[in-house]
């Protein structure tokens, strides 16, 4: 297996409490209202839950199914491909929320890719994934700040 390759969004500062940002991330039913990168997602907030989603990598929506592998509320959620031994590409997407103070936090999301064909996949799609993650981060910032102002 190859080394891990990380594709990451920029880290954004959000003028809203970390707990509110976490609630936006895990309120999957509301994604169509704010997340242009992943406008459709179905999942339960529990380890092992399938995450059925549609993502926009610049060529229309693509369906994907991954599985929740880590929940550290209100700071981190990770979902992953099945990642069976011998799969050509393994992927684990994490979203991290870090409180900066009681009213601000930072957010970053990244995918860790590994496997024999990870480098080729990242060469082909890595920039699109990065752009999609940055779009998601900007959308999350706008949504959380709007909700915080309305509160």
TrEMBL record:
It comes from the Bacteria. Pfam families: Polyketide_cyc2. This is SRPBCC domain-containing protein. It comes from Seongchinamella unica.
